[in-house]
Amino acid sequence: MSNRIDQLFATKKTGILNIYCTAGFPELNDTLPVMTALQQYGADLIELGMPFSDPLADGPVIQESSTRAIKNGMSIRQLFEQLKDFRKTIHLPVILMGYLNPVLLYGIENFCKKCAEVGVDGVILPDLPMDEYESDYKSIFEQYGLHLIFLVTPETSEERIRKIDSLSKGFVYAVSSSSTTGKDKDMGNQQAYFEKLKQLQLKNPVLIGFGIKDKATFEAACAYSNGAIIGTAFIRAIENTTNLDAAVKSFIAGVK
Amino acid sequence: MKIAENTFGSKYHVDEKGFYGRFGGAYVPEMLYPNVKELQDNYLQILRDPAFQQQFDQLLRDYVGRPSPLYLAKRLSEKYGASIYLKREDLNHTGAHKVNNTVGQILLAQRLGKSRIIAETGAGQHGVATATVCALMNMECVIYMGSIDIQRQAPNVARMKMLGATVVAATSGSQTLKDATNEAIRDWINNPVDTHYILGTAAGPHPYPDMVARFQSVISEEIKVQLLEKTGKANPDYVMACIGGGSNAAGAYYHFLNEPDVKLVAVEAGGKGVNSGFSAATTQLGKLGIIHASKTLLMQTEDGQITEPHSISAGLDYPGIGPLHAHLFETGRATFLNATDDEALQAAYELTRLEGIIPALESSHALAKLKDMSFNPDDVVVLCLSGRGDKDMETYIRNLPNKLS
């Protein structure tokens, strides 16, 4: 069977909503309830963060959610335990996002194997160098049918974007501005970059992330791409809630 | 100046891909790639420029006060039964070896057309050295420092502010050097075009470990000349240095790396003891992993979370180690020891009373291991006294066995 990410993009070309949530957050066992609510209220894709103590590409909100998730007891091992039977109820494509160190220690091959076993479709590892992926790990990811998704930024050269597009599977993650996650940078200034990306006619679909937080920014991103990724704003929406289900519902209703 | 020497092909220097053996590399997210690539593509070319070398040389001489003396510590030598020379980096302008690197990097930043400088600092020595060259070159300066370190190194915080730097507290994690480095990297991600990051130690993504080692290599370059003058031979039997990230050690070892007769000794911070749960002895407690974009040995949990180290010395309070040193450890080229907080304190009091030199707590870790070495009487030992103890006076006074009266 083909990868669920590919199936999604084959059937839906625009307005794709990818929501990021740190696994094991706000409470350790909230991972599945959050995923269930995301599916029920209309997200198209789920990106689960594997918390890391030193998340360099993330701003304070996701950083704090990671610290809290680690305190809750979240780890890669724990996450796979929680995801053991999730395919009985969740049919959305699921991506794991995290930093290389915990995955290396877990073992790349073990990790890929486990992803395939539980039904994960893709992986984002922002600090895995493209060359090292190509020479050391690409064949392992492919063997387990796992898509590795790379990032591009406004500073990425066209030549490099082409290379990233050729190695990425599933989609290309376009970071909206040169920043860590959750920064309020003006999306208006990024139009030329989005326009350029669109004109490159990449082989992969493009999702735009970083700084997407509400209906206006979501629609602005969708005008240039297949959809967008929301992380920080979603974490904020659920971090102090007493009713997870209602919080997810109202957040998605506010975006779509 | 030999800062631009071609070292490719040497077993102990960085290779073309930025690795020392299996350690090193540049594990940066795409947001940092252009910044790091710009440095990788340009640093050697800039260092090779004779005009750059002349300017670097001149500033080290006239502004920093180099060459720093190589001092035969007679009473210390008597006590430990060898000829012990102290490389007096403590006498540099701003009080430590850190300034060698900041002078080099600010000149490089100018050539790259940068207008804003950021840096991390632990003990505050690198922060002060960075704020100093920023004042000198009229550049905007932002220093990230863990909030715990801001408390324990107050005099250096005041100096940075007086020099015109903005000091930003890193409040995440252990609130020490690791977290200050995280925040500096995040700043760089958010300001990719106009900002240069002056990393203070021989760690981080390639080319930093090599670039910092080259700027610090002036230490061993001078040792060779000075030792030849004083003893008739250029190579000592031992070179000893303390290691956190490893910049003073990298500089002190640099021109001896391929001289197998010279024994290299590295002293890490044992904290309250290697097995106490409060330590920063990375080679003893660490496993292969990635910290601050470098593949190296680091202290981590079984789930791959980076753990919080402990050392009385803010400059050694780091859960990783530069990739060069991980390689020296793994190949056995250097011997790694560690000194506890108490041993470092005792060594500081001892040097003060024997030689009239108050050392930095960091350097005191190297001094503390003199007692554990088995020297021959005719051995020549060079110990890098990386910094002076002014910033540590509060700690020294607080811990004195008999309060000063």
From TrEMBL, chain A:
A GO-annotated cellular component: cytosol
Cross-referenced CDD domains: Tryptophan_synthase_alpha
EC number per UniProt: 4.2.1.20
Pfam families: Trp_syntA
Pathway(s) of this molecule: Amino-acid biosynthesis; L-tryptophan biosynthesis; L-tryptophan from chorismate: step 5/5
Residues at the active site: 47 (proton acceptor), 58 (proton acceptor)
Keyword field: Amino-acid biosynthesis, Aromatic amino acid biosynthesis, Lyase, Tryptophan biosynthesis
Catalytic reaction equation(s): (1S,2R)-1-C-(indol-3-yl)glycerol 3-phosphate + L-serine = D-glyceraldehyde 3-phosphate + L-tryptophan + H2O
Entry superkingdom: Bacteria
Signal peptide: none
UniProt keyword Transmembrane present: no
Family: Belongs to the TrpA family.
Role, per record: The alpha subunit is responsible for the aldol cleavage of indoleglycerol phosphate to indole and glyceraldehyde 3-phosphate.
HAMAP family xref list: Trp_synth_alpha
PANTHER family, A to Z: TRYPTOPHAN SYNTHASE ALPHA CHAIN, CHLOROPLASTIC, TRYPTOPHAN SYNTHASE, ALPHA CHAIN
This protein's name: Tryptophan synthase alpha chain
Biological source species: Chitinophaga oryziterrae
UniProtKB/TrEMBL annotation, chain B:
Catalyzed chemical reaction(s): (1S,2R)-1-C-(indol-3-yl)glycerol 3-phosphate + L-serine = D-glyceraldehyde 3-phosphate + L-tryptophan + H2O
All copies of domain Tryptophan synthase beta chain-like PALP, residue ranges: 65-387
Necessary cofactors: pyridoxal 5'-phosphate
EC annotation from Swiss-Prot or TrEMBL: 4.2.1.20
Entries under InterPro entries matching the protein: Trp_synth_b_CS, Trp_synth_beta, Trp_synth_beta/beta-like, TrpB-like_PALP, TrpB-like_PALP_sf
Gene Ontology CC terms, in alphabetical order: cytoplasm
Pfam families named among the record's database cross-references: PALP
Keyword Membrane attributed: no
UniProtKB keywords: Amino-acid biosynthesis, Aromatic amino acid biosynthesis, Lyase, Pyridoxal phosphate, Tryptophan biosynthesis
UniProt GO molecular function: tryptophan synthase activity
Transmembrane segments: none
Modified-residue entries (N6-(pyridoxal phosphate)lysine), positions: 98
CDD domains to which the protein is assigned, alphabetical: Trp-synth_B
Pathway of action: Amino-acid biosynthesis; L-tryptophan biosynthesis; L-tryptophan from chorismate: step 5/5
Family under the similarity heading: Belongs to the TrpB family.
Function: The beta subunit is responsible for the synthesis of L-tryptophan from indole and L-serine.
Subunit-structure text: Tetramer of two alpha and two beta chains.
Protein name: Tryptophan synthase beta chain
Gene (UniProt): trpB
